[in-house]
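Q: Predict the bound structure with adenosine-5'-triphosphate.
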Amino acid sequence: MIGIYGGTFDPVHFGHLRTALEVKELFTLDEVRLIPCSQPPHRETPLTPPEKRLAMLELAVQNQPGLVVDRRELDRVGYSYMIDTLKSLQNEDSGKSLLLIIGTDAFEGLDSWHQWQQLFDYAHILVITRPGHVLQELSCFLSSKLTDNREDLTLDKAGCLFFQSVTQLDISATAIRLLINSGQNPSYLLPDSIIKYINNNKLYIRRPN
Ligand code: ATP
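A: Predicted complex:
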């Protein structure tokens, strides 16, 4: 089974990385693909160019086998819809099932994602807990997908909804951008190699968030 972890990653931080690693180990995944979006449908396109967000991801995982950066959303034109990403991953026909990893904040807006119900035709969805987010009541559709039995994820190739808590690191890319913008030191929130990249490329300095 392959984990799919999408986001803007502007920049990637230890909240993302620790989650990806814990989920990989908890579910014995072959790998977790970190997939930066090019043009997110639900928020403004990040000011940081996609290739730079991708470069930061590559720096972050370079010594971590099993965490893999996947650039397919950068190579597509138009909005980066997750349904298209899952379809293209399945077309690769690795025979492996897909586990779509999303935080509770993203999960709360799931029903506004393009063709969201069809996501379950291509993947299981794993919701990871994130500090400060209280879960809303599930709709009938989502309740019908819910399981608390991890084995269900291996019995079927797709279609289950599972909640998993991981070590909670209350870090957000927004907070990191703000820190840097105000001249503070972001150390210990993200890898040093990425801080160096941010400094070298003068990212997040003196611009609105
Ligand atoms: P921003 O502050 O710019 O919105 P972000 O830090 O929330 O960014 P994204 O790239 O938007 O990061 O998020 C990608 C995915 O990572 C989402 O599913 C989100 O829920 C999850 N995520 C973000 N921060 C954390 C964290 N600290 N711990 C666990 N998951 C996280």
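A: The domain at 2-170 is CATH 3.40.50.620 (Rossmann fold).
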